[in-house]
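User: Please predict the structure of the protein below. I'd like the answer in structure-token form so I can feed it into my own downstream comparison script.

Assistant: Understood. Taking the following sequence of 641 residues as input:
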Amino acid sequence: MNVNFIRLGVVIMSSAMLSHTNASAETKEFFADTDTIAYNLPVSEVVVTGSRSTTDVRHLPMTLSIVGRNDLTMHQRQNILPTLMEEVPGLMVTSRGVMGYGVSTGAAGGMMLRGLSSGTGQLMVMIDGHPQYNGIYGHSIADSYQTMLAERVEVLRGPASLLYGSNAMGGVINIVTRGMKKDGVRTEINVGGGSYGTFQAEASNEVRKGNFSSTVAGQYGRSDNHRPNMDFEQYGSFIKLNYDITDHWNVYADANLTHFNSSYPGTTQNPMLEADQWITRGVANIGVENHYARTSGRVSAYDNFGRHKINDGYAANGGTRQNRLFRSKDALAGISAYQNFNAWTDGRFTIGIDYQHIYGRAYYTSRETGEVLETQNKQSGHVHNNEVAAYIDLRQDIVDLLTIDLGLRYDNHSVTGGEWIPQIGLVVRPMATGEVKLMASKGFRNPTMREMYLYPPSNEELDPERMWTYELSWKHRVADNRLRYGINIFYISGDNIIQTVNRKNVNTGEIENKGIEAQATWNITQQLYLTTNHSFLKMDNPVVGAPTYKGYLGMNYVSRNGIWDAGVGLTGVGGLYKAIGENEEKEDFVLLNATISCHICKPLSVWVKGENLLAQKYEINAGYPMPKATVMGGLNFTIGK
């Protein structure tokens, strides 16, 4: 690892502590839920991702980061991932341009947490607790995760397979969708544009009247990006309806649909032509919830689906134009049911069942006639897999000093068979303002349809990937909760990792990762807070997209009269693996981003932002140089509250 980045991490952490600065993403959701622009002092740390119920994180043994809506919208980004990369220790997101991640060859938007990748299905993205990934390839689609959906994002750093099953072996990113909490109407319109022909627009309307509430939002974005043949255009929509039947029961339904057109330019060494993608992704969800003093739960049905059309393109220097298009259809449909019980004093247990039906079809069509072409892929027909699981999670508080958490899941896959998933955790509270957490948990991932059926390396006899994570953490709150800090160490050991050996997918890989993560927050006043987080990762088997060091130092400020607000962030990345093996490549860089908003009058504000203001020359994906300094500006119009 570059010594300069060790020094950078020490400098950032030292300056943060010496000035009593800074904050982890784990507390910001409390600021985000306030009715004013100012950043108010948090009261409690309540999450849903780690326990399937509203729970104080101080009683959960796992490590969680929470990013609230104020932070997600501060820098006027249409996608949640750039903000999560800054705010969540250890999370790295690959990128290649101003806007858009794309899919297929050369795509970005890969999420890497503790050396485990969303690109291989080891890290799960969820919306309101429901898994979101391509059914054929088993990975997330980064351009689907738009800011307009989110009230907050909860990131569980470490295995979450006990509650969420396959693909959650490295952690989960759970997008909690928006909804009005008080009676009223709120309408917001935001438009902006800037460097490289980039334009973005978003409109939303939130309503709550009595027992009924709704959220409707739409989004559009486009960019030429900074290289030829790298155009990106996206349309998105979201709707959520909720009705409180009684004080204890409510029903809800939501859906979002996004379509994007993306062009792949190839690397700078090997540019491409006609490498175009037309992608549609959608999610629909319906459920009923109950909330009583001693029990609560939910039953829901969901469907995550996609339609992909891809032109693989050809080399600009002497390549041959494609005469066919790759097509795929996929769906991940499921039913989830769970119930929480406070059946005895200071004790709680959760029981749940999950069912998933995974469908996929991949094929080619002629560019001239549109007819389906015969291929050698086993996947050219319709392929279905099913998973069914049951789990129980028990948590017991012993006075105010100790919490014990035990859980067990049994998961059965229609091809790979059954898998037992245990978890054990311990929380010790030696003082009212601090806690020590210990955690040992198993994670797993079932092989994808691509790995089992698609392309020559496919192998129908693959077993699930498996790993164990062991973690020790300390969190502390001082100065009337205004200053918060935490540090955790972890060790990951995994086997059965799927790799391609001699042109065949086999369970031969191993994982042994260890690291340290630290974060701190200082809520200086109601107008100003600072935040910092740092992660150091050592991998016995390095993977592309994982940095050895990542650090962030940020400041958000709101003027006392509420007219001005500003956010500034400095991100440092060291030892980022762009390539591994004999041609190993690493990258180091520092990014400075800033946003300033001025509230001209009650409904209208103007904003301007700059990214990579130090004009760094760097790459995250090998062969895809990132743009230097970019600038955007726009207007925000808001009616209601």
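That's the full token string. The longest helix spans residues 3-18.
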